[in-house]
Structure formats: structure tokens, C-alpha cells
Amino acid sequence: MTGGEQGQGRAPESTWEVCLSWGTAMIDYVEKAGRTVPTEEWTLTLAEPDRLLVNVLLAAVVYQQASTSALEGEGTNDVLLCGPQGHGVTGLLTKQPLECLRGVPDQESTERGRAERIALAEHAGRPDGRDRWERVLRVTCELAAAVARDTAGQRYWETETPMRAFGAVYRRLLQHRAAADVLGEHDY
Questions:
Q1: pLDDT tens for residues 112-171?
Q2: CA distances from 94 to 18, 88, 139 (A)
Q3: What are the backbone angles phi and psi of residue 161, rounded to the nearest 5°?
Q4: How many other CB atoms are found less than 10 A from the CB of residue 142?
Q5: DSSP class of residue 81?
Q6: By 3-state DSSP, what share of the chain in percent is helix, strand and coil, each rounded to 5?
Q7: Are the beta carbons of 166 and 88 closer than 8 angstroms?
Q8: What pTM did the predictor assign?
Q9: What pLDDT band is residue 22 in, cutting at 50, 70 and 90?
């Protein structure tokens, strides 16, 4: 993923913003890949405001991986999406998602998504918020697994696969959709 791939907005400026871009791309990919929504829970969770919670949770896990490996900015391309022994984004989501959220430092470069990180941590810690936390976590884990399967294959947990591989799959999807849109416009 390159800095200009954040969408209509400005290019990401910090490692945290690049991680947010990865979260956005993963959600966008699953939606644009033409998948049927597996459950009503997905529909509910991928609508605002919970969609932003999913994005921030994905970003926090990518950020944790990047920080642990001393990767910054575009270096997040080398963060593992999946890998053996629970490595990668898919593994961290199942092993320590709350720790990843809490591991994003509160500083100016991580201001975007701060309120959502706080809300998620509060939901996880309160009995009356557990349902929301568990639903967001479940959908985020399933979403990351769907992306990993499409990127690394059905047995994605056996292969070290970096985020850059997902970036290539995502770019191809966007190119194919753009080509289909152009061809569809001329098919009258």
C-alpha cells in the first residue's frame, strides 16, 4: 500500500494513519469482493458507528505488529497478515486484541481513532459493554480471516503472508472493478 492509497483524503502521515488505511482497505476489500454477508451481525457491525470500531481494532493490531518489528510508515507492508503459530494480524486478533488497542500510544500522531480505542477498551472492561466488544471482535476476526484466505489460501495460518500480498490482491480487485465499470458503461 502506498501513501496515496488512503482514498479521497490526504496521504497518511504517520505509521498509525498507515495502519488505519490498512483497516479501511480490509473492510473495503471484503465488501467489494462481492461476498454475501455471512450474518446479520456483520451487517450491523460494518455499519457506522461500529464500522469505525472494526477499522480501529484492525489498525491497532497492524500497529502492534509494526511496532514490535520496528516498522514505520510504508514499512507496514512487511507486517504479517497471517502466519504459523498465531503470528500476524489474524493471530493477534485471537490472542491479544485488547492489549493491541491499549498499546497504541496517546500522542498527536495517533489522535485519529483515539475515541474509538477508548470506547472499545471501555466496552471490553464493562459487563454492560461486553456484548458490543465481543461482537466487534468476532466480526473483525472473521473479516481478517476472510482477507487472509483470499490472500494466502484456505490454510492461511500455515503461511507467512505480509500485508503487501493483501495490498496486491486489493489493488487487483479495484482494477478489475474499475475495468468492469468502464466496460459496463459501454455495453448498452
A1: 999 999 999 999 988 888 899 999 999 999 999 999 999 999 999 999 999 999 999 999
A2: 22, 10, 12
A3: -130, 115
A4: 17
A5: E
A6: 70, 5, 25
A7: no
A8: 0.88
A9: very high
- For residue 48, the one-letter residue type is E
Residue 83 DSSP label = -
- Length of the chain equals 188
Which grid coordinates belong to 26? 480490509
Q: Where do we find the cell 484492525?
A: 58
C-alpha cell at 152: 494466502
3-class secondary-structure state, position 153: coil
Q: Are residues 79 and 62 in contact, defined by beta-carbon separation less than 8 angstroms?
A: yes
Q: List the grid coordinates of 13.
A: 502521515
On the question of pLDDT at 48 being above 70, the answer is yes
Is the CB of residue 101 less than 8 Å from the CB of residue 120?
A: yes
**Mean pLDDT, residues 11-39 taken together:** 87
The cell 465488501 sits on which residue? Answer: 31
